[in-house]
Design a protein that fits this description.
Blueprint (H helix, E strand, L loop, with lengths): L14 E2 L2 E2 L1 E2 L10 H14 L9 H20 L8 E4 L2 H16 L5 E5 L8 H10 L2 E5 L9 H7 L4 E7 L11 H10 L3 E5 L11 H4 L3 E5 L10 E5 L1 H6 L10 E4 L4 E3 L13 H17 L1 H19 L5 E4 L10 E6 L4 H10 L2 E2 L1 E3 L4 H7 L4 E5 L6 H21 L1
Helix pairs in contact: 1-9, 2-9, 3-4, 10-13, 11-13
Bound molecules: ligand 7TS.
The site of ligand 7TS has 17 residues, from helix 3.
């Protein structure tokens, strides 16, 4: 990866606690490059207006930018039509929409929803709630010992009673890349729809929803160098057409009578209220930035970073890394624990040296249970990280280890 990439991220040019910042928490949210910050500044400074209603010039400009962003997203994930791209707040909102709209209409008592033990809470709780409401059964696909998913276990879990299979593409804890294309095929053989949680995939891999043949795909702008507050639900047109909105009000209506109303066509029927205009503009700039570098190059860089980090970190005695050992099977996420030191303490000591990692359950408590831990630390890498960041992390971990062995 070109070392100049870092210079596009102004936030990284600062010191934290007297040390140059090393940001290793991109799985939580990524940093933003100058072109994204500038696009937001320009939008608010020159074009800001509400969309889809204007006769005036600013209204038209804002609408062009907002709908232009939709085209950009359509191409980015290779969707068939812009009608399949719904702008929402993020992955969480997108999965909730599928559960509340598609799920309520299609899942009946005794039907099954199949997920895995490695899901983020955003891909567990919407299904738990729906299963309770409909009297449906929530089933979990077993994981292999190294935190991967075998198609054998997928076949064992999915039956003709399965209506929805929902799976994370890249785990935010284990970094595992799941075979969602093959799983979608199995789901379809049983008449179920396939939902993909792409929150950690869209920032790092080339996504082609037609090739994956998934029915729904959810992701968040803020994890892919875009702003917070914007996310995307992709859905196959014929499925979205048949679904009812879950939010009602302005923007999403066609005609409103006293006792009855009708909805706009796709995708606007799902975008009630003033849309996330600036967010979409920022997301479009983020996509331009990522595509300029190339998703293939980004993916390669992440495998490389994961391989080096795992190699250097496993040389630290008492440090355990979770998830697949083979870096080719994971994105740039390395989750670990240092023996006898609580991960929050590890993260605090690292922060004293200017290194930002996340500690906790990473919104994946069922996975923590499966790993038999209450919490872990996690270093996540992105396109602006380089090997010097790994060296600083390893140095920081060695100091943390020494510090705690002196204290206890
Ligand atoms: N799914 C996965 C796999 C995620 O990693 C996250 C966020 C979400 C869904 C939810 O995305 P949101 O944008 O709607 O919040 N993951 C994390 C994380 O790992 N640390 O902080 C947020």
């Amino acid at each position: 990866m070109n070392p100049e990439i870092k210079s596009y991220f102004p936030i990284l040019k600062q010191e934290i606690n007297g040390h140059p910042l090393v940001y290793l928490d991109s799985a939580a949210t990524s940093q933003k490059p100058t072109p994204v910050i500038e696009a937001l500044k320009e939008y608010y400074g020159s074009d800001n207006s509400n969309v889809h209603r204007g006769v005036h010039t600013l209204g038209n400009r804002a609408t062009e930018k907002y709908e232009g962003a939709r085209e950009k997203v359509q191409q980015f994930i290779n969707a068939n039509s812009t009608q399949e791209i719904v702008f929402l707040r993020g992955t969480t909102t997108a999965i909730n929409l599928v559960a509340q709209s598609y799920g309520r209409a299609n899942v009946e008592e005794g039907d099954e929803i199949v997920i895995t033990y490695m899901e983020h809470h955003s891909n567990i709780i919407p299904w738990q709630q729906m299963a309770k409401e409909r009297g449906a059964v929530l089933k979990y696909i077993e994981l292999e010992e190294d935190g991967t998913i075998s198609l054998e276990n997928v076949r064992a879990a999915i039956t003709d009673r399965t209506k929805i299979v929902s799976m994370v593409y890249v785990s935010n804890v284990l970094g595992t890349m799941n075979p969602v294309k093959e799983v979608a095929k199995i789901a379809h053989e049983h008449g179920a729809v396939m939902v993909v949680d792409g929150a950690q995939a869209a920032p790092h891999l080339k996504i082609d929803v037609q090739d994956l043949d998934c029915d729904f795909f959810a992701f968040s702008g803020h994890k892919m160098v875009g702003p917070t507050g914007i996310g995307v639900l992709y859905g196959k047109k014929q499925l979205l057409e048949a679904m009812e909105p879950v939010e009602f009000g302005g923007e999403m209506i066609d005609f409103v009578g006293l006792y009855d109303s009708t909805w706009k066509e796709l995708p606007w029927k799902f975008e009630g209220g003033t849309p996330i205009i600036a967010g979409a503009v920022g997301l479009a700039a983020a996509i331009d930035f990522l595509e300029e570098i190339g998703l293939d190059a980004i993916e390669k860089h992440e495998h490389h970073m994961a391989a080096i980090a795992m190699d250097k970190m496993s040389a630290i005695e008492g440090l355990e890394i979770y998830g697949p050992k083979d870096p080719a099977k994971r994105a740039g996420i390395v989750t670990f624990n240092l023996k006898e030191v609580h991960p929050h303490d590890v993260a605090t000591v690292l922060d004293m040296s200017g290194i930002a990692v996340r500690a906790g359950h990473h919104c994946a408590q069922p996975l923590m249970k499966w790993l038999n831990v209450t919490a872990t630390a996690r270093a996540s890498f992105y396109l602006y990280n380089d090997e010097s960041d790994i060296d600083r992390l390893v140095e920081g971990l060695r100091s943390a280890k020494e510090y705690f062995s002196d204290v206890f």
